[in-house]
């Protein structure tokens, strides 16, 4: 019997007989062990049935023929018992094959209304049907384990990507595969901790080629290609000195949190991976536009997704297939790189990585690779956790005071301006340049305000925003940003599903401020964790006072006196290391 027809028949039987026990509680995590624990009673039932038939056989004269009804029941019970053993060994395919054969035997039994086999046949058919459904459910829902949570489908789309990656893009694939040896051990380790399939560790190969500084035209950055908003949502800090999207370890943890969220939303990994590429809202929109009222798998959506995403999943599946069959495609990595071992140090001194490399006699590229989140290869003025190769750690500690400080002025934020708009309805014969001249503005400004190209055709009747005079929307003064009158510090207990970005949004603060206030090195939170939060605060909640320079003062002495770094003092007062100060001059200090 065709497997799909059989499955449909079984499912129909399941609905008719009301097998509600196969549906597990939505509040309990579903695992293979959950199913197996629930099946001990049914296994005992099957064994009892088998023992009853054996007892019946012993009391009858002669042996039952295998083609007899009783012989078929005996064979079905034996196959059901074998299926249970296969399932416990995680061999789902053999378990399903045995149950299919058992069910086929039961269907061959022809019974009359008063047949003695009627009840026995129905009991066994019920148990077999229920077991098949449970195995199918466990195979679809289990996140980790040997059950191929991400099935590798080798259809025409995947085969086309295999040819591409082993043909025109072969050199890119080999270079990326070589780089993966440095980062994959950590990624696999984190995936195992989170209970996610190891195959996901190959996602960075198609995202960035395992390049921690890869930048896409859409401004997605790092090995896992986070755009700024998504990175911020999952706790990746981004400022003038640091962009944690380029840190392989921090970005990996953020990517795992994002993928778990997507899998919880869509229920299957191929669709979750598609959403990782184009965003969950784009995939949800595609699902809503389907004529069908259910989503079976990614291939139902394939034709409706953007071309880049439509290629993305087959490209990922092709990558997993190739790395599992390197000999077949004649791919060999002769000298794969190994993960870099390092030791961390908390440093509050602005130093250039090249100066550190010279002082401790280490390769500068190695140091940059370990601290890839540093945008300008220079430590920030505040305390920073730097990674040093473990073989040079002791040398770094002895020479840290001798390494010269590099003063890197933090750029001052510029006042933000907005336009006051008027609106104009396009008439027949109008052009962008004509409208721009008429309203004394430029074509580029007009196009920018309306999110269109300067060469776009404008349709008659379209309403355009016409920029007028500018007004200042927000500006920061040199006196700093003060804490609002309504700000107060509270203690918040982390709940299940919380992340730093959600908590920051809830209390009108920032992820950076929460991390600093609670001395958090990363963005991971655990249920029940208590956080100190300043509600309604701003990123810079310190107030400043004025200090009048006295005779004999130097910038370094003033900075130390007020527990500030020299760079901070110079930056606040728009000074450089060459600037001179004089008695009576007023300086801003914290």
Please characterize this protein's 3D structure:
The chain is mainly alpha-helical and 590 residues long. Helices cover 45% and strands 9% of the residues. The protein is built from 23 helices and 8 strands. Strands 1-2 form a two-stranded antiparallel sheet.
State the separation between the terminal residues, measured CA to CA.
80 Å
Mean pLDDT: 77
Shape: extended
Tally the helices: what do you get?
23
Identify low-pLDDT runs. Answer: 12-42, 54-63, 140-148, 471-485, 537-541
How many strands?
8
Rg: 33 Å
Share of β-strand residues: 5-15%
Tell me roughly what share of residues is in helical segments. 40-55%
Strand order of the largest sheet: 1-2
Strand count, sense and closure of the main sheet?
2 strands, antiparallel
**Helix/strand/pairing category:** mainly alpha
Short description:
This protein has 590 residues and is mainly α. The chain is built from 23 helices and eight strands. The strands form four sheets. Strands 1-2 form a two-stranded antiparallel ribbon.
């Amino acid at each position: 019997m065709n497997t799909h027809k059989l499955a449909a028949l079984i499912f129909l039987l399941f609905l008719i007989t009301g097998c509600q026990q196969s549906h597990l509680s939505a509040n309990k995590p579903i695992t293979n062990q959950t199913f197996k624990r629930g099946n001990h009673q049914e296994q005992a039932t099957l064994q009892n049935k088998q023992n009853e038939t054996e007892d019946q056989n012993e009391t009858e004269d002669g042996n039952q023929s295998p083609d007899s009804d009783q012989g078929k029941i005996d064979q079905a019970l034996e196959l059901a018992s074998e299926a249970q053993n296969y399932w416990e060994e995680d061999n789902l395919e053999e378990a399903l094959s045995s149950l299919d054969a058992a069910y086929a035997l039961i269907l061959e039994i022809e019974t009359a209304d008063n047949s003695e086999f009627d009840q026995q046949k129905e009991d066994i058919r019920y148990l077999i049907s229920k077991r098949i459904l449970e195995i199918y459910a466990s195979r679809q829902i289990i996140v980790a384990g040997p059950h191929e949570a991400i099935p590798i489908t080798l259809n025409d789309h995947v085969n086309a990507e295999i040819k591409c990656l082993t043909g025109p893009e072969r050199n890119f694939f080999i270079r990326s595969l070589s780089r993966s040896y440095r980062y994959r051990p950590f990624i696999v380790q984190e995936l195992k901790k989170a209970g996610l399939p190891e195959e996901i560790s190959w996602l960075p190969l198609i995202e960035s080629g395992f390049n921690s500084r890869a930048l896409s035209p859409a401004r997605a950055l790092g090995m896992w290609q986070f755009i700024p908003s998504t990175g911020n949502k999952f706790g990746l800090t981004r400022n003038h000195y640091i962009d944690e999207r380029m840190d392989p370890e921090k970005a990996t943890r953020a990517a795992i949190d994002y993928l778990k969220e997507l899998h919880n939303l869509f229920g299957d990994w191929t669709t979750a991976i598609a959403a990782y590429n184009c965003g969950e809202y784009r995939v949800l929109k595609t699902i809503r536009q389907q004529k069908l009222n259910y989503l079976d798998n990614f291939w139902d959506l394939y034709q409706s997704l953007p071309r880049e995403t439509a290629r993305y999943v087959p490209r990922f599946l092709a990558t997993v297939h190739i790395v599992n069959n390197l000999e077949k495609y004649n791919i060999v990595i002769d000298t794969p790189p190994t993960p870099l071992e390092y030791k961390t140090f908390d440093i509050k001194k602005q130093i250039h990585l090249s100066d550190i490399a010279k002082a401790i006699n280490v390769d500068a590229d190695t140091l940059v690779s370990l601290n890839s989140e540093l945008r300008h290869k220079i430590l920030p003025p505040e305390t920073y956790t730097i990674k040093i190769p473990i073989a040079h750690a002791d040398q770094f500690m002895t020479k840290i005071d001798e390494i010269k400080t590099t003063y890197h002025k933090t750029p001052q934020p510029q006042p933000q301006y907005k336009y006051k708009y008027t609106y104009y309805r396009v008439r027949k014969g109008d052009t962008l340049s004509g409208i721009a001249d008429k309203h004394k503005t430029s074509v580029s400004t007009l196009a920018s305000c309306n999110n269109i190209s300067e060469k776009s055709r404008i349709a008659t009747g379209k309403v355009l925003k016409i920029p007028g005079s500018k007004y200042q929307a927000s500006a920061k003064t040199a006196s700093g940003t003060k804490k609002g009158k309504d700000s107060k510090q509270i203690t918040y207990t982390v709940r299940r599903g919380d992340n730093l970005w959600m908590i920051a949004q809830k209390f009108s603060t920032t992820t950076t401020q929460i991390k600093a206030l609670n001395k958090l090195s990363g963005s991971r939170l655990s249920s029940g964790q208590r956080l100190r939060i300043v509600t309604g605060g701003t990123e810079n909640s310190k107030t400043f006072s004025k200090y009048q320079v006295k005779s004999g003062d130097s910038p370094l002495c003033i900075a130390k006196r007020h527990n500030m770094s020299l760079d901070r003092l110079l930056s606040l007062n728009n000074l450089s290391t060459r600037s001179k100060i004089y008695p009576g001059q007023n300086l801003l200090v914290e």
